[in-house]
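Key idea: predict the complex, not the pieces.
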Amino acid sequence: MSVTGDFSKEVLRLDPEMEAGRICSRIRELMLTRLKKRGMVIGLSGGIDSSVTAALAAKALGKERVLGLEMPERHSALETRQLSSMVAATLGIETVVEDISGILESVGFYSRYDKAVRMVVPEYDEGWKSKIVISGVIERPGFASFYLVTQDRNAAISTIRLPFKPYLEIVAATNFKQRIRKMLEYYHADRLNFAVAGTPNRLEYDQGFFVKLGDGAADIKPIAHLYKSQVYQLAGYLGIPEEIQKREPTTDTYSLSQGQDEFYFSLPYEKMDLCLFAINNQVPIGSVAAALGLKQEQVQMVFNDIEVKRSTTRYLHLQPLLVDDIAWENSK
Amino acid sequence: MSLQEDIRSFIVDNFLFGDEGGLSNDSSFVKEGIVDSTGILQLVAFIQEQYMIAVEDDELIPENLDSVSKVTAFIKEKKRMIAADRATADI
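Result:
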C-alpha cells in the first residue's frame, strides 16, 4: 500500500457492517473447524475492546452462547462494574461476577505489592494509592524509564523513578491480576465447553501490551487485526453504550487511575494507530508528522519506540520453545 | 581489574551467561540485542550501587549506556564531576 501526501486518520476508515460480518463469519468458522467449542467466555472490563469482542461473539454465535465475566477487585475503578454490566445488559448476555480480591489476598498480591512499593516509598501504607507511569518518549529521548506515582491520605502526589528491583517486583505482583482473571475465564469455559476470547486490539497485540498467560492467553482473538480507532468504529455500529465509547482507555490495574498512554504507549491511541499503520505501510515520515502535528524527529522517536517494543515483547507471543521440532503430522 | 573490565564482566556475566564471544567494547547493547530496555534498568542499578553514582533522568541515553566503552566513559566523567564538586566544596 502506498500512502503519500494526504495521509490522515481516514486511512483507518472501514465499513463497520462489512467488517463485523466478516469477523462473525470467521468466528463461526474457527469455532466449528478448529476450536470445536459451543460458545465463548469473555472477561468484561467495561472498556471498548472487551465490549466489542462480546458484541461480535453474541452476533456470531447467539447471545445465549456467550458468557461475560465481571472480575473486579479492590483496586478496580468504580465505573468498571457499572459499565461492564451495562454492556452485558445491552447485548443480553449472561454474566457471572467473580470478585478476585479474595484470591489476590490469598496469593499475597496486596502485601507483595505494598512491600515492593515500600522499597522506594517506605511510608506507603493503607489509604495510599499508586501507579506506574512511563517516561514520555517524545519529550525525552533515550531509554524508557518507569516512575512510581503515589498519592498519600491527603491526596498529595509524588513521583519517583523506579529502580530495577522494585520495578520488577511491582510488575510481577500486578501480573497476578491478569493471570487470575484468565484462570477464572478458563474455569467457566471448561465447565460450559466454551472457548475463551482474548480482547487485544492491533496496537496492544503488536506492541506486546499484555501479560503472558494472563490477558495474552486465549483461544481466539477476534479484534487483534483492528487498529483501536477501527474498534471504536465497530462499537458505534454494534450499539455499544455511549458511556463505554466515551471512556478514556485505562489499564484499570493500579489503585490510582492510569491511562494506557501514560503506562505503555508514547502517544494517545489515535496517533499511535497512525504511527503503527505508517510503519506497516511504509508511509513517509513527513506525511505522518504533518498529519499528527508533530516534528519529524518526534515521529522518528515513536517509530523507534514501536520497533523496540516489538523486539522486547516478541517472546510474549512465543509458544514454549522446544529443543527439537515435533512434527504433529507424523504423530497422527 | 580496570573499570572497563569491571563493566565488561558485569555485561558478560549478566546478559551473556558468561560467554564473551563476539562482544567488543564498542558493540551496541541494544542494536546487537545484548541488553533490552529492562536490562538497561539493571545496568543502571549496577552503576548506581557499585560506583555510588546517581544516574539522572536525562542521562538515560544511548550515548552513556549503549556499549562497554560508553558506560566506562560515562562513569569516569561522573566520577570526575563528583570529585570536582567536592574540591569546590572544600575551598
